[in-house]
Request: fold
Amino acid sequence: MNHIKTEVHNSPNVNGTIDVKERIKKALFQPKGNNIIPPIYLWIGLCALTVFTLTPFIYLVLSSVTMKSELINGVIFTKNPTFENYINIFKGGGGSGFVKAIKNSVYVSVLTTFFSLGIGVFAAYALARIKFPFRMTSLFCILAMQLLPSISIVVPFYMMMRDGIQIKLPFTDLILYHSPPLLDTIWALILAYTTFSLPFVIWLLAGYFQTIPKELEEAAFIDGCSRFTSIIKVILPIAAPGIAATALFTFLGSWDEFMFANAFTQTYESKTLPVVIREFMGKHSIDWGFMTAGGIIASLPPLIISILLYRYIIGGMVAGSIKE
Amino acid sequence: MFSNPLHKQKRISSRAFLNRQRKDYILALFFLLPTFYVLFKTYIFPIYQSFIWSFFKYNLMENTDTSFVGIRNYSDILQSTEFWVSMKRTIYFTGVSVFLELIFGFFCALLLNEIFKGRIIFRVIIIIPWALLTLVNGLLWKYIYQPGYGAFTQLLRFLHIIDPNSNPVWLSNSDNIINFVILSDVWKCTPFITLILLAGMQSISGNLYEAAMIDGAGFWAKIRLITIPQLLPSIIIAIVLRTMGAFKVYDILTVFTGDPTTSVSYLTFNNAFRYFYLGNASAMAWISTLFMLLLIIIYIRILKRNTE
Reply:
């Protein structure tokens, strides 16, 4: 760095115009500081990135405030924007279905996050912090589960939900609890999503827990903390950003899921937003204003969450990739 | 008697240590038990069950008895053109979209890893497509591809790439549809790869680039000699995660087309929940699972060869 800077200073000013030209050239084509891309290409790239990323999204937003009659004639920038599409979504029988779908989506995503973190935190702690036989094997098995495509269990899962879940006393035929059929309830979805998020949650959390220095916990043990209290008092507060990131990914994943929701739900009692949005396509086949408005409402929570909690998402990505 | 107090102390502490260790084993088991129970009940057992069913004729709608048919489900699937068409399209979709997303994602991450004013704004912008619901992404792009008033047609007319009076129907046949789905998938999922690679790039030390600059390395040399080798673990993770995601493509396709042969997942889902051929669907799911595993093993092989 220094080497180059001194060179710039020593360059002889033979001619004023050449100097200005040189300077402009340097400003445009010489990467600044530790950067590796020259400024001009950097900004060209950023402009292209912004245009490609935002144009479809802006089109989506613009269409949602435009009436159907205008959209069909190919109007993109409407002169009289209206919120009528948004109002129409909440009107009538379809409207109450849509509200119910929002509720279902919230319940399913929140409860899935709650259950998978509640179970996963302890498993992740055990795998990251306690030495015991078959630790690596267990970790590997849990990781391997993450790799299988979800389509492979959708069929048996469907049958399980249709017949209701049995909880048996281990190694006997004694049935402790037999649930009613869970098809067309949000519990089928919560269970399915918890199953799929659990390996992922454990993977991420174990990664976070491993980064916490052992000394901190040992100090807590000397102070007379048990394992359990040290989890609550030491591990959880320190790993809070990691837990937040994990919760966020779980929430977003459950909010977005469609295949299981499509298979397991039949009525508005359990339909989640993606399923209802998919139905719009059949019912309002060319009312794109209506459909885009619905799409925006459904995407609003993930959009807001991921923009506001951007830092945690990046943190989660870092932890996830450091792990390997 | 020369009992050494120190020795005694040591014995006690080692017993305490053993005690502690045993306690730890029990605690670990206790902590892992809920996870193992849930995963066994809702993951391992169902997978085992679908493996069993894949050897049975099990049609839920026909009310006929289930009967053992051996490998007939598998041989039927492997002989059906439907399956091979959908498999080919899925592989094409996965290969092309992951490749494009990796290339674009890499350059986006490179841009966003630089230091400049307003970087945070650009970093947040790229999250927007990723945060949209997958299904809404499908809806948005189907709208964009609508003949006549769709933005795609209008843009091409505006740029005089197509004749202003012509009105092509973009989503006319399933092979075309795959290409258009790839475009929409690239729009939505490139940010995901960008974020992973960006996370990886942040751990590359600036000193490496400085050293390379002093050696007179240009932009491409830096990328080839420093960025890519250092970033390889992140690249592999991004590829594995995206391949798995792309291979099970289903959501977007249901919006774009009613043709189940556009992806294996779609075909499997239709067999299972439209016709309720559970045996057949289980067999098909197992074939794609095995295919997926094969793919992952190949990736790991490549990764190992590259790190050695």
